[in-house]
Amino acid sequence: MSDLESIEEGWRLMEQSPASARERAETIVARTTDRAVTLRGRVLIGTCLTTEGDVAAGIGTLLSAVFELRDGSDDQNLGRAYNALGNAYRHIGNVKDNLHFLRASLELRRRSGNAVEQALGLQNLAIGLSVLGDHVGALVYLDEAASLSADAGHPAAEGTALLNASHSHIELGNYPAALEATLRGVELLGDKAAPIRLAFAHQQLCTAARLAGRYDISETAGRRALELAASVERPKANWSCLMAMGRLFLDRGWHGADPDRGLQMLNAALEEAERLQSQPSLVEMRKILAEACEAEGLFQEALEHHRALHELQRSIYQQNAAGQLAALKAQLKVQSLSRHAAELAALNSELERANRAKSEFLEIASHDLKNAMSAVLMTATLIQEESVTQARIRPGIVIERQTRRMLRLIDNLLDSDAIESGERSMRPEVFDLAELASEVADGFSASAAKKDIRIDLHSRGRCPVYADRSAAGQVIENLVSNAVKFSPKRGHVAIDVTDHQLSVGDSGPGFSLRDHQTMYQRFARLSATPTGDEPSTGLGLSIVHNLMQAIDGQITAENGPRGGALMTILLPAPPKE
């Protein structure tokens, strides 16, 4: 199962265990580098947090995901995030944001062209309007949802819309319409729906039939609801079904009315609501019990329920206020982060433009400079060839040396810029590191001999590595060049190769503390100076460091056990066949 499939499975798991679904998503998000998977996981995490009761954390997580999803990369996931935010704001009594996000979710679902998705969005918005008391408005959306589902050939979605419509009909006092909608909804769900959905459907039928005076249907539906609720062992199902049956037994219009049994069932429903830890459920139960006790002349019990109801409502008000404050803080934090992200994106774009302009300038300037330097170099060579006295030859030698130094500086600048911008492509291959080190050492034998420096190469047979050979050669050349450059006359340079590691040690002064802090920066000068008046651009180690990153290698710099600098590189081993 892919990570995306596992996230989708998490949405189904959330209906049974939000905590388990959240943990699954958190594990996937922690390990993945896929942006789409990460954002889908974060939306699921935010939704689960809200469902678990941590509304502020849920809102913060969802808003941060929404900020990234507004680029249109995943409208389905954005729609889910909007829907979850709408539900979250409803939990804390923020009606304005509740409807705002539900409408935004519905708009995305309409654009998708998926009839079932649109029907779901319509139902969610209708529920939000019902909470506001706008049951007429809710019915408009629910009728559209039922019609869309029917046209799409999705009876379960149509049935759910009709069951939700039944709630609004009941609140409007239109009990026959409520019963008609409920009967049709139960019929459309059929017997293949999940037991918990069927339990709620029959509980709704029990209530609608009782209010419409069809006690025979109400009793049958209520008993079936209790059976189904017992089979799933879910507090919410038990609570709603016990409440419906309790009210039926208290209804004196029914020949089977039994007030004592009705109160007993309602008290059992209260216990289930307490197990459920749902404050809206507890509020509803306290109201029903207070009214029932008053009707039966149990005024002391009714007073206790009224007191408990008052405490609940006060607690809910305080929690909603705290929740709205926490949600506002989370929203402001996300807005602040979003603003900073936009500013950083604009700055990054500006830096990229400046970097491109710099690269273009370097390319043009270096081309013109190299042409000019080549002309100067040819002139210096002619001066040396055509001069007959040492006095005239010497200026030509100085001009040639300085010109070559300028050409090296231009090449280093171009090389450094190409590596940093990623324009230099790497072509890894398997090669012998010891053989490459030997070639580099031979190349420096003449310059080392001028200072009477001995270069010793030690290796243990073939040392195969997997990297760009040209880049690795350039790294070793820079290290050996520095070793020769900073070693005194009659000094010693040691090159050791073992497995896929190479080290270059010299007999110079080594590194200072400041060198360790700045050596890989562009134009950083080491504290030591070349011992043979060799030129130094300050770009060599910067190029080495960038090249090692580009070929997935590692580099370390330290002072050797007997003094001098010791540079060590580690290259990737060949892939296993």
Write a compact overview of the structure shown.
This protein is α+β, with helices and mostly antiparallel strands.
Fold and architecture overview:
The protein has 577 residues and is of the alpha+beta class. It contains 22 helices and 7 strands. The chain has a 5-stranded mixed β-sheet with strand order 2-4-5-7-6. It has a two-stranded antiparallel ribbon with strand order 1-3. Helix 4 packs antiparallel against helix 5, helix 5 packs antiparallel against helix 6 (95-112) and helix 6 runs antiparallel to helix 7. The longest helix has 88 residues, at 299-386. The mean pLDDT is 84.
Question: Which terms summarize this structure?
Answer:
577 residues, alpha+beta, Heat Shock Protein 90, two-stranded antiparallel ribbon, 7 strands
What is the CATH-assigned architecture of the domain at 430-570? 2-Layer Sandwich
Strand order of the largest sheet: 2-4-5-7-6
Q: Which outline best applies? A: elongated
Structural class: alpha+beta
Report the strand count. 7
Question: Can you summarize the main beta sheet?
Answer: 5 strands, mixed
Q: What is the highest CATH level, the class of the domain at 430-570?
A: Alpha Beta
What is the gyration radius calculated from CA atoms? 39 Å
